[in-house]
Amino acid sequence: MKILYDSRSLDNSVSDRRRAGRKMLRTFARLISPSGDHVAIRTYDIGLGGIAIIAPTNMQLNSRCRVIFEVYGSDRGVSRICVSGRVIHSILSAKEDGFIIGLEFLDLEEGARNIIMSYVSA
């Protein structure tokens, strides 16, 4: 198995930056691969810079995909969001029964950004 990410290689500044402004988001979601395949996934956490997902299979570093998920905001109710992202790390997690994959947002639309910002700051 090819390891795409090793948490021991992170320095403290990168690790601290990643934790800043993130909030747990545990919900079912759908990943759309570049080939158009749909995969059932779960979300793990989210911030303005990206989202962590739990997927049944690994993804290549720097590959791109889209993720569709719902976020609950007290002022807006439930909002469905579709975001584009790039894989920046992936690690197999026995605890989560899948791969925890970190996606960096690409071209995050203003509406989605506002919904995520509202959710993270609540």
Structure commentary:
By secondary structure, the protein is an alpha+beta fold. The protein contains 2 helices and 7 strands; from the N terminus they run αβββββββα. It has helices at 12-19, 110-121; strands at residues 23-24, 28-32, 38-47, 50-55, 64-73, 77-93, 98-106. Strand 6 and strand 7 form a beta hairpin.
Quickly list its features.
disordered N terminus, 122 residues, six-stranded antiparallel beta barrel, 7 strands, Thrombin, subunit H, 16% helix
Strand/helix succession? HEEEEEEEH
- Give the biggest beta sheet: 6 strands, antiparallel, barrel
Q: Output mean pLDDT.
A: 86
Give the strand order, joined by hyphens, for the main sheet.
2-3-4-7-6-5
Indicate the proportion of strand residues: over 45%
Overall structural domain count: 1
Number of helices: 2
Principal-axes geometry comes out as globular
Number of strands: 7
Query: Radius of gyration, rounded?
Result: 14 Å
The CATH fourth-level homologous superfamily: predicted glycosyltransferase like domains
Q: Alpha-carbon distance between the termini?
A: 39 Å
